[in-house]
Design goal:
Blueprint (H helix, E strand, L loop, with lengths): L8 H24 L2 H6 L4 E6 L12 E9 L2 E11 L3 H4 L8 E9 L7 E7 L9 H13 L8 E8 L2 E10 L17 E5 L7 E4 L5 E6 L5 H18 L17 H13 L11 E6 L4 E4 L25 H4 L1 H6 L3 H19 L2 H22 L19 H24 L6
Parallel strand pairs: 1-6
Antiparallel strand pairs: 1-2, 2-3, 3-4, 4-5, 5-7, 6-7, 8-10, 8-11, 9-10, 11-12
Helix pairs in contact: 4-6, 6-9, 9-11, 10-11
Length: 425
Amino acid sequence: MSIKRYSPAFPVFIVLAMLVMAIMILLSLHSHITPQKCEASGTPILFIETESGKKIKTKEKYVKAVYSISYGGETLSGKCKIRGRGNTTWKTRELYKKPYLLKLDKAASLLGLPEAEKWVLMANTADKTSLRNAYAYYLANNVWKSGLWTPDAKFLALFVNGRYEGLYALTEKIDIGPNRLSLNTEDGSFLFEVRSQKNKAWNFKSKQDVSFSIRQPENSSKEKFEAQQNFIQQVEDVLFSDDFADKENGWQKYLDAQSFADWYLINEFTKNHDARFQASCYLYYDSNSKKVYMGPIWDFDISCGNINYDGCENPEGFWVKEESQWFKRLFEDPFFANLVKERWNSKRELLRNSSEWIQMSAEEIEGPIMINDSLWKNIGHRQWPHAPGWKKRKTFAAEVNYFSDWVTKRFEWMDKAINESEVQK
């Protein structure tokens, strides 16, 4: 069929031709990034070969596979299953590189991390530095050092069915079990989450309009779920009661004060958008101490200025304290406000210098980041969440400097605000 130059079909033809060309270029990039190139950049490599070469298309269905990974001169391999995971990354059109959930047939230690069956392959697609999640784990594990379990992560290059998929962060999954959260579910302990999306088995909304999901144990009964729901509601009722600040019968009877203070400070310092009790806010009840703990921390890709709405791009101003129902209430008790101030000042020098970790880590992953960007074209290009000034930042170094400078400015503002007792207002 011939197409006239000015026929209505001509623009459609041009668009289709450009789409085909883009696909061909992408496939070419996939094929030209070899394991040898990734090894030369100092990146460990995870190979995934799916059964019959099946594609990983959804978050709902696992695909059977085998894996192989080399670390410290040794190669580990075995059977596994893999599927998509996450919410925003799988729905947002501009985020093409997808995260995955990897489930090994047998628990194993990967890249020196404690052995487990389930692992998250974090794509860090929305973060052009890929460092914001790792920075939050650094703050929890090396600055606050509360002794409570916090996920850790290691960077690797992922190849699926022989194709390079990008730089990923192999991350410990938030789970109850050995080497993760040590909780006795038989005795009543459970893990729950604040999440606006009710796509889990057990969900409810509290009287304060907070959406909760019971995460573990997963194979629960309706009776156990109702008991857990009633307990969480009881805790919230006490928190919002007239005598909530009573040391014996108020919120301190049910909530672990330090874990709430530390979780708050990490999320407020990074101005993590989701931490307003919107999503990925984990809590757990420990039947041994008979208290609710805030954490573990999770999901910081749109923190530290990597966002363009709700004022979270601004290094000044409180966020969690003003937007989260529970934390807003906690700050009405001088005991909690003073605990936050005390915890901040005990860590302020480590926080002041934490931007050095960002620069040091950036130097370590610059090579792998450049390989990743040669495929996904993130740096200098339009990509949600459209952090201010992204058009001018054409290099990885520019993105790292924006991140580091934002953290420095945030520290200066928070240090002054906290020590002027603004947190108590």
